[in-house]
Design goal:
alpha/beta; Rossmann fold; seven-stranded mixed beta sheet; two-stranded parallel sheet; 10 helices; disordered N terminus; binds S-adenosylmethionine
Length: 284
């Protein structure tokens, strides 16, 4: 059995960033419900200033700006040049949104400026999450808030569990440290609480949020299954598990994943379960 390679350290500045840009519209559709839940939990008031951490192509920055209104402002930061370029290109003229290519863990941020630190699936990639959150907390006004969405465990997320189970006889699962930076680094709610407490936050809330993800898109069910497979092969844990594998192993794995997706409901998208935490806290 082949062994899955480890993801490169700064994948977001390379292939992952490229693929995220390529598939951005479908990824936004898939993640919409989770972002909306985190935005609702943030309870933004008109005129507020928001930092959108790991903002990607900016979908949530634009949604946050709509809630903050003309007197508010949103700064989106991301380490991926490709995604920041996409976000800037998509910014409507006059929108109170700015984007910055920066590592949120270390970027020079204006002190005591933001009412809210927000993120949709962008805060699980810090090497030292306590230091990163403490650094970002200094940019919050006194009593400022944090609200973000992060994934629960792979076992609870069928969009990962189904494809990874389908390939497990062909490709050994990567020997990943569950605490290492990555999409599931915040799966343990006790760890989230410990990180935020150590970084100086209080009133921490960690609420489960489940949603059906419309995975892939197509005019027919067959086209939707093919698209879901292509998406899974391009972005996320399956793509990392198969990167660098021989063509015959990739082809066998792809056929097995396609069969798993074909067992899911859905006509123009494959409907598949996702499980996140919606996390809220206040600067202590
Ligand atoms: C899963 S994507 C989510 C993107 C976006 N929030 C969305 O929901 O569409 C994670 C994002 O976090 C960004 N990211 C990872 N580490 C970062 C860091 N240290 N500082 C800023 N952005 C980071 C990546 O470049 C990527 O755009």
């Amino acid at each position: 059995m082949a062994t899955a390679p480890q993801p490169p350290t700064h994948e977001w500045t390379g292939a992952s960033g490229d693929n995220w840009v390529l598939h951005q519209q479908r990824l936004d559709l898939m993640l919409d419900a989770f972002g909306d839940a985190a935005i609702d939990a943030a309870a933004i008031a008109p005129g507020e200033h928001v930092l959108d951490i790991g903002c990607g192509a900016g979908a949530t920055s634009f949604a946050l700006a709509a809630r903050a209104g003309p007197g508010g402002h949103v700064l989106g930061v991301d380490i991926s040049p490709q995604l920041i370029a996409r976000a800037e290109a998509g910014t409507p003229a006059g929108s109170p949104v700015a984007f910055r290519l920066a590592d949120a863990a270390t970027a020079a941020l204006p002190p005591a400026t933001f009412d809210l630190l927000f993120s949709r699936f962008g805060v699980m990639f810090f090497d030292d999450p306590v230091a990163a959150f403490a650094h970002m907390r200094a940019a919050l006004k006194p009593g400022g808030r944090v609200a973000f969405a992060c994934w629960r465990t792979p076992a609870e997320n069928d969009w990962v569990r189904l494809p990874m189970t389908a390939i497990r006889d062909r490709v050994a699962p990567p020997a990943t440290d569950p605490l290492a930076p990555g999409p599931f680094a915040f799966a343990d709610p006790a760890r989230i609480g410990a990180i935020l407490t150590a970084a100086g936050f209080a009133d921490i809330g960690v609420a489960p949020f489940d949603a059906t993800i419309p995975y892939g898109e197509g005019a027919t069910r067959d086209a939707a299954i093919d698209d879901a497979l292509n998406l899974a092969l391009a972005v996320g844990p399956l793509s990392r598990a198969l990167a660098g594998q021989d063509d015959d192993i990739r082809a066998e794995a792809a056929a097995a994943v396609r069969a798993a997706f074909a067992r899911q409901p859905g006509e123009t998208s494959i409907l598949i379960g996702g499980a996140a935490w919606i996390v809220t806290a206040r600067a202590g």
